[in-house]
Design brief:
160 residues, alpha/beta, Ribosomal Protein L15, Chain: K, domain 2, three-stranded parallel sheet, 5 helices
Length: 160
């Protein structure tokens, strides 16, 4: 079979309905739109949630919850998870957490003390629990407190 021999299946193609070409065509006058009303006018478009005048579903359902834009969102990570993710490296920066998808723009990172350390690590975070700080320093590491969260602008500037 060749490309020039390809044909659509029978019945799948039909002539286009030509509207507004006079009364003799059968589609003249109102051009199959009917008389009066929204749908007969030019420029008519139906909104995606219109339900024929019935109260739309989005307005019938109860609304719950609200997240204030300026609240500080904390991400808590245990030491054992940090060690499992970054066990081979000696220094773990905030950017490393962002690259792994653990921290998003505008979020703060807090390291919690569940787990143990066998090697000294230098960990950057916005906050440390007392137990986490003690365990990091017992292993000979360093807990570095970073002042501000990662902003979306800083993330975009870093990526070329």
């Amino acid at each position: 079979m060749k490309i020039n021999q390809l044909k659509p299946p029978p019945g799948s193609r039909h002539k286009e309905k030509r509207l507004g070409r006079g009364d003799a065509s059968g589609h003249g006058g109102t051009s199959t739109r009917g008389h009066k009303g929204h749908k007969s006018r030019t420029g008519f478009s139906l909104s995606f949630n219109f339900e024929g005048g019935q109260m739309p579903l989005s307005r019938r359902l109860p609304k719950h919850g609200f997240r204030h834009a300026k609240t500080t969102r904390w991400v808590a990570l245990n030491l054992k998870k940090v060690v499992a993710l970054f066990g081979g490296s000696r220094s773990i920066k905030i950017e490393n957490f962002c690259q792994r998808g653990l921290l998003k723009a505008g979020e703060y990172l807090k390291i919690l003390g569940s787990g143990s350390l066998r090697q000294p690590l230098e960990i950057e975070a916005h906050a440390f629990s007392a137990l986490a700080r003690a365990r990091i320093e017992q292993a000979g590491g360093k807990a570095v407190v970073v002042e501000k969260p990662v902003s979306p602008r800083e993330e975009k500037e870093e990526q070329p």
